[in-house]
Specification:
By secondary structure, this protein is α+β, with helices and mostly antiparallel strands. It is built from 13 helices and 15 strands. It has a four-stranded antiparallel sheet with strand order 3-2-1-4, with helices on one face. Strands 5-6-8-7 form a four-stranded antiparallel sheet. A three-stranded antiparallel sheet has the order 9-10-11.
Length: 397
């Protein structure tokens, strides 16, 4: 079938599309490549049509639920689908992270008619299929016309609407239910330290604890990830990648780039977030004029405090984090912060006790042991003390 890749009501390109595979096979006409996703614009500028078609298909497939989603087989069975790619055709590939969609060539439908920022959607059945232990299948086709079709990541997720606002619910991974609590802790740390962040709270869905956050994108903005920004740039596998990223953002008019990125890595140090990959940080762009507005608020902090061993004698944890293309120790990553003295760790007084209370509050649901809660709080306290020590060392130099 022929379709048009759209950015709101701006036509980007016309292409041949195979719905069964969610791939593009031929570009018929390029109309306005400037309004394409940044990664596609960069790929198009390389003047390799075959590679561009591959990247276009890869980008579109990447909008969908990934094959590594926790218990994907169960979800698909409940949705009466064979592959997650089938979901991309249920609602034009629309998302709540941007304004891209595919329009049938013979259709006169407009973005205002269908987008999920303005139009409500029924999330009840998808929510049931995602988080419930029930084996009941979805029977309504309308239940598949939601932004849940374009959620990435390994965790179970579902968009809901409350009081006109869009919220994303995320569960834990397999038998580990710490992710929602880590999100809330990260949110509270950022609040105390004055870091721009997405606010997470906890909720109970189908007898499971989930994190809950409001959508930080609106119908006039999009999230452009660091992966897209760094696409096509030679990898140096060292701090040069970080410096290159800062320069790109500064050249595009974003202010206080270094400090805002440092804040993210300071948070990662405090909670030992091991999964700061290039797709969970980036910038916000205005889709109407393509202006880069600001660094995206800090989000997606769940993969933290990975306690490997609860041995009484020693607390064994994963001490490696991500720094662009490298895996490195948190003690090394934190050295990229040029001025730690601006951080007032006294603002974190009481946060350990607050975390302890939070974990105990939901203990009857999670089953987290007192020993594990104690170890987690010890770990948080240890990282705060380490950060304070680093601040004092640098201050005395």
């Amino acid at each position: 079938m022929q379709c048009i890749l759209m950015n709101k009501n701006t036509e980007i390109l016309v292409a041949e599309y195979q719905p069964s595979l969610a791939v593009f096979t031929k570009i018929t006409e390029v109309k306005n490549i400037a309004y394409a996703p940044l990664i596609l614009k960069k790929s198009y500028n390389q003047n390799d049509e075959e590679k561009f078609i591959v990247e276009l298909s890869k980008w579109f497939k990447g909008r969908g639920i990934p094959s590594w989603r926790d218990k994907l087989d169960i979800l698909l069975a409940r949705l009466n689908l064979s592959t997650p790619e089938e979901l991309l055709d249920k609602a034009f590939g629309l998302s709540l992270s941007d304004q891209y969609w595919i329009k049938p060539i013979d259709s006169d439908i407009k973005y205002e008619d269908i987008n999920f920022f303005d139009h409500d959607f029924d999330s009840a059945e998808f929510l049931e299929a995602t988080f419930s232990n029930s084996s009941r299948s979805i029977t309504s086709e309308d239940s598949l016309k939601t932004p849940n079709n374009t959620t990435d990541g390994m965790l179970k997720k579902s968009w809901i609407i409350e009081n006109g606002k869009r919220y994303l619910l995320k569960g834990g991974y397999k038998n580990d239910i710490m992710q929602p609590f880590n999100e809330v802790l990260a949110s509270r740390i950022c609040e105390r330290l004055g870091f721009n962040h997405v606010t997470y709270t906890l909720d109970i869905v189908k007898e499971k604890v989930v994190s809950k956050c409001e959508c930080f994108i609106n119908k006039d903005t999009e999230l452009v990830t660091a992966y897209q920004i760094m696409y096509g740039i030679e990898k140096n596998q060292d701090s040069k990648d970080y410096e290159e990223y800062i320069k790109i953002l500064e050249d595009n008019g974003i202010e206080n780039v270094r400090e805002k990125l440092e804040n993210m890595y300071i948070l990662d140090f405090l909670i030992l977030n091991e999964d700061r990959h290039l797709n969970n940080f980036g910038i916000i762009r205005d889709v109407n004029n393509l202006k880069w507005l600001d660094i995206a608020p800090i989000f997606d902090n769940g993969q933290s405090f990975n306690i490997v061993d609860l041995d009484q004698a020693e607390l064994m944890v994963n001490v490696d984090g991500r720094f662009f293309y490298n895996i490195d120790e948190f003690d090394n990553i934190i050295t990229i912060v040029k001025d730690l003295s601006r951080i007032d760790t006294s603002k974190l007084d009481g946060i350990v006790e607050e975390f302890d209370e939070l974990l105990h509050e939901y203990q009857n649901i999670t089953g987290i042991s007192d020993e594990r809660i104690h170890k987690l709080c010890v770990l948080l306290n240890r990282q705060i003390k380490k950060l304070n020590k680093l601040i004092n060392i640098k201050g005395n130099k």
